[in-house]
Amino acid sequence: MEIQGKLIKKLDLLTGQGKNGTWIKQEFIIETQEQFPRKVCISLWGDKVRGLEAIPVGNQLKASINIESREYNGRWYTDVRAWRIESMSKSATPDQAPELPPFNDNLYPPMEGEGDDGLPF
């Protein structure tokens, strides 16, 4: 599944020791851009945490996620875990777009067989 939204908060980095060694986890909150926006807490584990460092709060992002629930002592707990995140950076607006240099006809010599109108046919 994929979910898109604005990154509104990065929670504290968590680390610990498990039976398989050291683990690292970071959770973040996004707000969807729907008619009725929703806030969703998503977790990243292991090396995937580094991907979140490059995305500033306030930017749009897309997360590929898995949703899983588990039962513990008669209660159910749901985890939304991202396995890939990417920034949804916007393209440059006309004010930010670089100015193109003027076209210079003298840079390109006429091709063999071109007529007086400059067209090759």
Annotate the secondary structure layout.
Layout: E1 2-10, E2 14-18, E3 21-31, E4 39-45, H1 49-53, E5 60-72, E6 75-87
Antiparallel strand pairs: 1-3, 1-5, 2-3, 3-4, 5-6
**What is the top-level CATH class?**
Mainly Beta
Low-confidence stretches: 91-97
* Rg over CA atoms: 25 Å
Secondary-structure-based class equals mainly beta
Shape: globular
CATH superfamily: Nucleic acid-binding proteins
Order of helices and strands: EEEEHEE
User: How many alpha or pi helices?
Assistant: 1
Largest sheet: number of strands, sense, barrel closure = 6 strands, antiparallel
At CATH level 3, the topology is: OB fold (Dihydrolipoamide Acetyltransferase, E2P)
Task: Give the termini separation.
Answer: 53 Å
Please give a structural write-up.
The structure is a single chain. This protein is mainly beta. The chain has a single domain, classed as OB fold (Dihydrolipoamide Acetyltransferase, E2P), CATH 2.40.50. It is 4% helix and 48% strand. The chain has one helix and six strands; from the N terminus they run ββββαββ. Strands 1, 2, 3, 4, 5 and 6 form a six-stranded antiparallel beta sheet that branches. The termini are far apart.
